[in-house]
Amino acid sequence: MELKPVECPKGFWKPILNLGATGKYWVENFLLHWFYYGLQKRDKSNIFLTEWNFMIEYAFSSPQWDLEKSFRAREIWCSLIGVSFRIRNLWAAEQRYLIKQMYNQYERWAKKYLNRTFCSSEFISFIQMPGAEYLALDGLIWLDEAATDEFWNNQEIQKKLPQFLEMVWISYQSRIRQKKDYFESFKNLLKGLAETQNPYAMELQDRISIG
Fold it and tell me: What is the mean pLDDT of residues 24-45?
Protein backbone atom coordinates (compact mmCIF):
# COMPACT_ATOMS: atom_id res chain seq x y z
CA MET A 1 0.00 0.00 0.00
CA GLU A 2 2.97 2.30 0.39
CA LEU A 3 4.22 1.59 -3.13
CA LYS A 4 3.69 3.86 -6.09
CA PRO A 5 2.16 2.32 -9.24
CA VAL A 6 5.54 2.50 -11.01
CA GLU A 7 6.97 0.34 -8.23
CA CYS A 8 4.60 -2.46 -9.25
CA PRO A 9 2.71 -3.45 -6.08
CA LYS A 10 1.43 -6.51 -7.97
CA GLY A 11 4.95 -7.90 -7.92
CA PHE A 12 4.67 -8.23 -4.16
CA TRP A 13 1.17 -9.62 -3.69
CA LYS A 14 0.90 -11.82 -6.79
CA PRO A 15 3.47 -14.45 -5.66
CA ILE A 16 1.57 -14.82 -2.39
CA LEU A 17 -1.86 -15.09 -3.98
CA ASN A 18 -0.44 -17.44 -6.60
CA LEU A 19 0.09 -20.01 -3.83
CA GLY A 20 -3.68 -20.43 -3.80
CA ALA A 21 -5.24 -23.08 -1.60
CA THR A 22 -1.98 -25.02 -1.27
CA GLY A 23 -0.51 -22.04 0.57
CA LYS A 24 -3.68 -21.35 2.54
CA TYR A 25 -2.03 -20.16 5.74
CA TRP A 26 0.44 -17.87 3.95
CA VAL A 27 -2.36 -16.36 1.89
CA GLU A 28 -4.70 -15.88 4.84
CA ASN A 29 -1.97 -14.32 6.98
CA PHE A 30 -1.07 -11.88 4.21
CA LEU A 31 -4.72 -10.90 3.68
CA LEU A 32 -5.31 -10.44 7.41
CA HIS A 33 -2.47 -7.93 7.53
CA TRP A 34 -3.62 -6.32 4.28
CA PHE A 35 -7.03 -5.57 5.76
CA TYR A 36 -5.68 -4.70 9.19
CA TYR A 37 -3.45 -2.03 7.70
CA GLY A 38 -5.70 -0.90 4.85
CA LEU A 39 -8.85 -0.41 6.91
CA GLN A 40 -7.03 1.89 9.31
CA LYS A 41 -5.53 4.15 6.64
CA ARG A 42 -8.29 6.40 5.33
CA ASP A 43 -5.73 8.45 3.41
CA LYS A 44 -4.75 5.24 1.58
CA SER A 45 -8.29 4.16 0.72
CA ASN A 46 -7.92 4.73 -3.03
CA ILE A 47 -4.77 2.62 -3.13
CA PHE A 48 -6.41 -0.01 -0.94
CA LEU A 49 -9.44 -0.26 -3.24
CA THR A 50 -7.35 -0.29 -6.42
CA GLU A 51 -5.03 -3.09 -5.33
CA TRP A 52 -7.85 -5.04 -3.68
CA ASN A 53 -9.76 -4.97 -6.96
CA PHE A 54 -6.66 -6.17 -8.80
CA MET A 55 -6.26 -9.03 -6.32
CA ILE A 56 -9.87 -10.13 -6.75
CA GLU A 57 -9.64 -9.98 -10.54
CA TYR A 58 -6.47 -12.05 -10.37
CA ALA A 59 -8.12 -14.64 -8.12
CA PHE A 60 -11.11 -15.00 -10.44
CA SER A 61 -8.75 -15.77 -13.31
CA SER A 62 -6.43 -18.10 -11.39
CA PRO A 63 -6.88 -21.91 -11.37
CA GLN A 64 -5.26 -21.86 -7.93
CA TRP A 65 -8.41 -20.16 -6.63
CA ASP A 66 -10.96 -22.33 -8.43
CA LEU A 67 -13.32 -24.02 -5.96
CA GLU A 68 -13.99 -26.74 -8.48
CA LYS A 69 -10.33 -27.77 -8.27
CA SER A 70 -9.63 -27.20 -4.59
CA PHE A 71 -12.07 -27.50 -1.72
CA ARG A 72 -9.90 -25.32 0.50
CA ALA A 73 -10.11 -22.41 -1.92
CA ARG A 74 -13.40 -21.50 -0.24
CA GLU A 75 -11.47 -20.34 2.84
CA ILE A 76 -8.98 -18.12 1.05
CA TRP A 77 -11.82 -16.65 -1.00
CA CYS A 78 -13.63 -15.67 2.18
CA SER A 79 -10.45 -13.97 3.37
CA LEU A 80 -9.89 -12.17 0.09
CA ILE A 81 -13.43 -10.81 -0.05
CA GLY A 82 -13.17 -9.75 3.61
CA VAL A 83 -15.87 -11.94 5.14
CA SER A 84 -13.79 -14.51 7.05
CA PHE A 85 -13.98 -14.60 10.84
CA ARG A 86 -10.70 -12.85 11.61
CA ILE A 87 -11.10 -10.20 8.92
CA ARG A 88 -14.78 -9.29 9.21
CA ASN A 89 -14.21 -8.14 12.78
CA LEU A 90 -11.85 -5.46 11.46
CA TRP A 91 -14.66 -3.68 9.61
CA ALA A 92 -16.27 -0.66 11.31
CA ALA A 93 -19.34 1.38 10.45
CA GLU A 94 -17.28 4.27 9.10
CA GLN A 95 -15.76 1.96 6.48
CA ARG A 96 -19.12 1.20 4.83
CA TYR A 97 -18.12 3.42 1.91
CA LEU A 98 -15.43 0.88 0.97
CA ILE A 99 -17.94 -1.95 0.85
CA LYS A 100 -20.30 0.20 -1.19
CA GLN A 101 -17.58 0.84 -3.76
CA MET A 102 -16.85 -2.90 -3.93
CA TYR A 103 -20.49 -3.86 -4.48
CA ASN A 104 -19.91 -5.33 -7.95
CA GLN A 105 -17.16 -7.62 -6.68
CA TYR A 106 -19.31 -8.81 -3.77
CA GLU A 107 -22.18 -9.51 -6.13
CA ARG A 108 -19.91 -11.37 -8.54
CA TRP A 109 -18.44 -13.47 -5.73
CA ALA A 110 -21.85 -14.14 -4.18
CA LYS A 111 -23.41 -15.36 -7.41
CA LYS A 112 -20.45 -17.65 -8.03
CA TYR A 113 -19.71 -19.05 -4.58
CA LEU A 114 -22.62 -18.60 -2.16
CA ASN A 115 -23.87 -22.03 -3.21
CA ARG A 116 -21.02 -23.33 -1.02
CA THR A 117 -22.33 -23.53 2.53
CA PHE A 118 -19.04 -22.45 4.09
CA CYS A 119 -19.14 -19.25 2.02
CA SER A 120 -22.83 -18.68 2.80
CA SER A 121 -22.23 -19.10 6.51
CA GLU A 122 -19.34 -16.63 6.56
CA PHE A 123 -21.28 -14.16 4.42
CA ILE A 124 -24.32 -14.26 6.72
CA SER A 125 -22.11 -13.28 9.64
CA PHE A 126 -20.41 -10.56 7.61
CA ILE A 127 -23.56 -8.79 6.42
CA GLN A 128 -24.67 -8.34 10.01
CA MET A 129 -21.58 -6.23 10.72
CA PRO A 130 -22.16 -2.45 11.04
CA GLY A 131 -20.11 -1.60 7.96
CA ALA A 132 -21.78 -4.16 5.70
CA GLU A 133 -25.39 -3.01 5.87
CA TYR A 134 -25.20 -1.78 2.27
CA LEU A 135 -25.21 -5.44 1.20
CA ALA A 136 -27.88 -6.70 3.58
CA LEU A 137 -30.96 -6.40 1.37
CA ASP A 138 -29.35 -7.64 -1.83
CA GLY A 139 -27.82 -10.34 0.35
CA LEU A 140 -31.34 -11.69 0.87
CA ILE A 141 -31.64 -12.24 -2.87
CA TRP A 142 -28.16 -13.73 -3.23
CA LEU A 143 -28.73 -16.18 -0.38
CA ASP A 144 -32.16 -17.14 -1.66
CA GLU A 145 -30.70 -17.87 -5.09
CA ALA A 146 -27.89 -19.94 -3.55
CA ALA A 147 -30.04 -22.05 -1.21
CA THR A 148 -29.78 -25.80 -1.77
CA ASP A 149 -30.62 -28.86 0.32
CA GLU A 150 -27.11 -28.68 1.73
CA PHE A 151 -27.71 -25.03 2.62
CA TRP A 152 -30.81 -25.82 4.67
CA ASN A 153 -29.16 -28.72 6.48
CA ASN A 154 -26.01 -26.84 7.48
CA GLN A 155 -25.85 -26.35 11.25
CA GLU A 156 -24.02 -23.03 11.12
CA ILE A 157 -26.55 -21.59 8.70
CA GLN A 158 -29.35 -22.90 10.92
CA LYS A 159 -27.88 -20.81 13.75
CA LYS A 160 -26.95 -17.67 11.85
CA LEU A 161 -29.70 -17.17 9.30
CA PRO A 162 -32.59 -16.60 11.76
CA GLN A 163 -30.54 -13.87 13.47
CA PHE A 164 -29.87 -12.20 10.14
CA LEU A 165 -33.51 -12.39 9.07
CA GLU A 166 -34.67 -10.86 12.33
CA MET A 167 -32.06 -8.10 12.11
CA VAL A 168 -32.88 -7.22 8.53
CA TRP A 169 -36.63 -7.25 9.20
CA ILE A 170 -36.31 -4.94 12.21
CA SER A 171 -34.00 -2.57 10.34
CA TYR A 172 -35.54 -2.57 6.86
CA GLN A 173 -39.12 -3.84 7.08
CA SER A 174 -40.58 -1.01 5.00
CA ARG A 175 -37.96 -1.33 2.26
CA ILE A 176 -38.42 -5.10 2.15
CA ARG A 177 -42.19 -4.73 1.74
CA GLN A 178 -41.77 -2.09 -0.96
CA LYS A 179 -39.56 -4.16 -3.24
CA LYS A 180 -40.96 -7.45 -4.48
CA ASP A 181 -37.56 -9.18 -4.92
CA TYR A 182 -36.53 -8.39 -1.34
CA PHE A 183 -39.88 -9.48 0.07
CA GLU A 184 -40.00 -12.74 -1.89
CA SER A 185 -36.45 -13.66 -0.94
CA PHE A 186 -37.09 -12.85 2.71
CA LYS A 187 -40.21 -15.02 2.74
CA ASN A 188 -38.45 -17.85 0.90
CA LEU A 189 -35.56 -17.90 3.37
CA LEU A 190 -37.82 -17.75 6.41
CA LYS A 191 -40.13 -20.42 5.02
CA GLY A 192 -37.20 -22.68 4.10
CA LEU A 193 -35.84 -22.47 7.62
CA ALA A 194 -39.22 -23.04 9.21
CA GLU A 195 -39.73 -26.14 7.08
CA THR A 196 -36.60 -27.64 8.67
CA GLN A 197 -38.33 -27.16 12.04
CA ASN A 198 -35.82 -24.50 13.04
CA PRO A 199 -37.32 -23.19 16.31
CA TYR A 200 -35.98 -19.64 15.91
CA ALA A 201 -37.40 -19.34 12.40
CA MET A 202 -40.74 -20.74 13.49
CA GLU A 203 -40.89 -18.29 16.38
CA LEU A 204 -39.98 -15.40 14.08
CA GLN A 205 -42.61 -16.52 11.58
CA ASP A 206 -45.24 -16.46 14.32
CA ARG A 207 -44.10 -13.07 15.59
CA ILE A 208 -44.15 -11.08 12.37
CA SER A 209 -46.82 -10.66 9.74
CA ILE A 210 -45.57 -11.28 6.20
CA GLY A 211 -48.82 -11.86 4.43
Answer: 92
Residue 102 lies in a domain: no
pTM of this structure: 0.94
For residues 59 and 139, state if they share a domain: no
Q: Is there a contact between 101 and 49 (Cβ–Cβ < 8 Å)? A: yes
Q: Tell me how far CA of residue 188 lies from CA of 72, 89, 101, 171, 210, in angstroms.
A: 30, 29, 28, 19, 11
Judge whether 110 lies within some domain.
no
Q: How many domains does the chain contain in total?
A: 2
Residues with Cβ within 8 Å of residue 93, at least 6 apart in sequence? 130, 131
> Do 84 and 120 fall into the same domain?
no
Q: Give residue 65's domain range.
A: 1-90
Alpha helices in the chain (DSSP H): 10-17, 24-38, 45-61, 73-80, 85-88, 96-101, 103-113, 117-126, 136-146, 149-153, 155-178, 180-195, 199-207
Is the CB of residue 140 less than 8 Å from the CB of residue 146?
no
- Based on the fold, state whether residues 72 and 141 are members of the same structural domain: no
Same domain, 79 and 151: no
Task: Kindly state whether residues 84 and 139 are assigned to the same domain.
Answer: no
pLDDT per residue as tens digits for the range 18-28: 999 999 999 99
Q: Which of 134, 191, 122 has its CA nearest to residue 160?
A: 122
**Residue 125 pLDDT greater than 80, yes or no:** yes
pLDDT surpassing 70 at residue 53: yes
